[in-house]
Design brief:
The complex is a heterodimer of chains A (167) and B (424).
Chain A: E1 2-9, H1 16-19, H2 30-34, H3 45-48, E2 54-57, H4 69-76, E3 81-84, H5 89-98, E4 102-104, E5 118-122, E6 127-130, E7 136-138, H6 144-152, H7 155-163
Parallel strand pairs in A: 1-2, 2-3, 3-4
Antiparallel strand pairs in A: 1-5, 5-6, 6-7
Helix pairs in contact in A: 6-7
Chain B: H1 9-17, E1 28-32, E2 35-39, H2 43-52, E3 64-67, H3 77-92, E4 97-98, H4 107-113, E5 122-125, E6 139-142, H5 145-154, E7 156-160, E8 164-170, H6 179-190, E9 199-203, H7 205-208, H8 212-220, E10 229-231, H9 236-242, E11 263-268, E12 275-277, E13 285-287, E14 298-301, H10 303-306, H11 309-319, E15 329-332, H12 337-345, H13 348-354, E16 358-359, E17 380-383, E18 399-402, H14 405-414
Parallel strand pairs in B: 2-3, 2-5, 3-4, 5-6, 8-9, 8-11, 9-10, 14-15, 14-17, 15-16, 17-18
Antiparallel strand pairs in B: 1-7, 12-13
The chains are: A alpha/beta (167), B alpha/beta (424).
The structure holds iron/sulfur cluster.
Residues 70, 106-108, 127, 129, 303-304, 364, 367-368, 385-386 of chain B line the site of iron/sulfur cluster.
Chain lengths: 167, 424
């Protein structure tokens, strides 16, 4: 699985309220939620982010309440992958379960410029290439079953595919 | 670094259930689960997902446990409807371990008591306090409803192997200090994120000396420090507890001597005071002497943390031949039917009733602000439960303090938070 897109840099401890404010939780439609992605910490972000773009964050991304709306909003905005130094546990589970690729990368990615530089991600190998400098960062690679969950579009679809292989 | 060391109990259980020789922290694995648990809040959501899979059966009707405990006996029509969804599903798929009201108890007290938890097993539950079962040497952790649904079909779940933190408690435990005080103290030291995503291994002479009840209380609150699981390695006490409850053979698992820990904490507990968590976070912990004199309107003794027989015995021993302070309502909630019955036979319930306390049938009830003892604006409670977030037990402007059953019982008598010594 290869993704390429523009990088958007965020800091540490981006909580699920920052990702999608509680006032929009009445919807579970990813595209509806995506209109308000990061609205409180980066107004206008929903219009800037384009399909395929990649979010890069610091420690503890997705902390706070366990709302599944947060990864849904990110996925709904067309983000192809989220890279962070670490993820909050439930966000991590929710992201995988809804089919949003995420990578943990402990390397310092501060030379990547937000909103302009391009990243290329190889999920299977856990490699992130910064196209401007050609430098490749290493992350934890994704095992095949996780790539399968992601490529099925989430855990529900993955289970369906396993119990009804013919369909 | 982990490739060159031995493995912790947590790593070994995950490795064996994933069919591997070894796993190291950070590995993503699929593992077979020995038990999957749901309650009246989470199971209906999981059932809805399950139905989207279009399957005819569950992976094993003996390995799914449904316990309606949060809003039961049904608090209102909505709760009743949720309970019906669970009951129908249990009937349709022949679930062996569906616990109807009358046989039910708070899930995390019920499963160990009923012999459903065995050392070396991997257990998931759609409830954050599923981590409780680590006290018996299992790896158990809370997951979401979608995970539960998938596990009900496949008998598997995916895991990221956590690194392990080791907590050593040494020294004799002072009078009136027990498992609740140890875990509150620990959370106070490391904070609510201190063990985020980690396995917490509890060990040391104070743990060896601790009862199984006290260990269950500690493992129960691992999640309050952010832990994925909390566990004690099985010992003689564990095996004695399992005797007569568990008939199937099981394989205890122990950490290697050369296992690698992300961090090791050493606590000397010989001078520890009973601990109290102040509003509105379980890590806002201080010794009881610093809470002394705070007046309270309600005391709750119960929950999956402290509603076991030992807890009720301690509370009753403090209250015996005394009256609850007239300004306080004391609710005692035995965590399971069996505990209720045992407390009845031992005369504990009579002690509570004579003291003008209230005794309830098993339920989560006030612990999550569900029913059976909700707080009004400005009211303050001292509870033996595990969370004291804003509004947890009722009005957003009410307050919850957390303590052991001994401190809670003594405070009910005094009408304000006190050390048990001041009452007995
Ligand atoms: S007693 Fe409280 S913490 Fe325990 S399962 Fe029930 S609601 Fe959750």
């Amino acid at each position: 699985m290869l993704f390429q897109g523009k990088a958007w840099i965020f800091g540490d401890n981006i909580d699920t309220d920052a990702i999608i404010s509680a006032r929009y939780l009445s919807s579970v439609d990813p595209r509806e939620l995506a209109k308000h992605l990061m609205e409180d910490i980066k107004p206008g972000f929903a219009d800037l982010v384009k399909t395929g773009d990649i979010l890069v964050a610091g420690n503890n991304f997705g902390c706070g309440s366990s709302r599944e709306h947060a990864p849904l909003a990110i996925k709904g905005a067309g983000v192809s992958c989220v890279i962070a130094r670490s993820f909050a546990r439930i966000f991590y589970r929710n992201a995988i379960n809804i089919g949003l690729p995420i990578l943990e990368c402990h390397e310092n990615m501060s030379s990547v410029k937000s909103g302009s530089d391009q990243l290329q991600v190889n999920l299977a190998q856990g490699l992130i290439t910064h196209l401007q400098s050609g430098y490749t960062y290493k992350a934890e690679p994704f095992p095949p079953f996780m790539r399968e969950i992601i490529s099925c579009g989430g855990l529900v679809e993955y289970v369906k595919a396993r119990v009804n292989p013919s369909e | 670094m982990y490739n060159n060391c031995g493995s912790t109990m947590a790593e070994k259980i995950l490795a064996s259930k994933a069919g591997r020789d070894k796993v190291v922290p950070g590995n993503l694995i699929i593992a077979k689960v020995d038990l999957a648990l749901g309650n009246d809040i989470t199971a209906p959501v999981a059932i809805r997902e399950f139905e989207r899979f279009g399957v005819e059966q569950v992976f094993d009707p003996e390995k799914i446990v449904f316990v309606p405990d949060h809003f039961t006996p049904n608090k209102d029509i909505a709760a009743a409807e949720q309970a019906v969804i669970m009951r129908r599903f249990a009937e349709k798929y022949n679930l062996k371990h569906y616990y109807e009201v009358g046989r039910m108890g708070i899930e995390h007290a019920l499963l160990p008591e009923q012999g459903l938890v065995r050392p070396g097993e991997l257990i998931i539950g759609a409830d954050s306090h599923t981590c409780t079962y680590g006290a018996l040497g299992a790896f158990s952790t809370g997951v979401g409803s979608t995970d539960l649904a998938a596990a009900m079909v496949l008998g598997e779940a995916w895991f990221k192997v956590p690194s392990t933190m080791r907590f050593e408690y040494n020294g004799p435990l002072p009078c009136w200090v027990g498992g609740k005080d140890l875990i509150l103290y620990t959370i106070g030291q490391i904070g609510v994120e201190g063990a985020r995503y980690r396995a917490m291994e509890f060990t040391g002479s104070a743990i060896s000396n601790l009862s199984i009840e006290g260990r269950l209380t500690m493992a129960n609150m691992a999640v309050e420090a952010g832990g994925k699981c909390g566990y004690m390695q099985p010992d003689e006490k564990t095996f004695n507890y399992l005797e007569g409850r568990v008939n199937e053979p099981y394989q205890p698992v122990y950490s290697d001597d050369d296992a690698c820990y992300e961090r090791v904490f050493n606590f000397d507990v010989s001078a520890l005071e009973p601990q109290v968590a102040f509003p509105s976070s379980p890590d806002n912990v201080r010794p009881v002497s610093e809470a002394s004199g705070i007046d309270i309107q309600q005391v709750v003794i119960g929950s999956c943390t402290n509603g076991r027989i030992e807890d009720l015995r301690i509370a009753a021993s403090v209250i015996k031949d005394k009256r609850i302070n007239p300004g306080v309502r004391m609710l005692v909630i035995p965590a399971t039917q069996l505990i209720y019955r045992q407390a009845l036979e031992e005369g504990l319930l009579t002690t509570f009733i004579d003291a003008e306390g209230v005794v309830s049938t098993p339920t989560c009830g006030p612990c999550l602000g569900g029913h059976m003892g909700i707080l009004a604006r400005g009211e303050r409670a001292l509870a033996t439960t595990n969370r004291n977030f804003v509004g947890r037990m009722g009005h957003p402007e009410s307050e919850v303090y957390l303590s052991s059953p001994a401190v809670a019982a003594a405070s009910a008598v005094a009408g304000k938070i006190v050390h048990p010594e001041e009452v007995v």
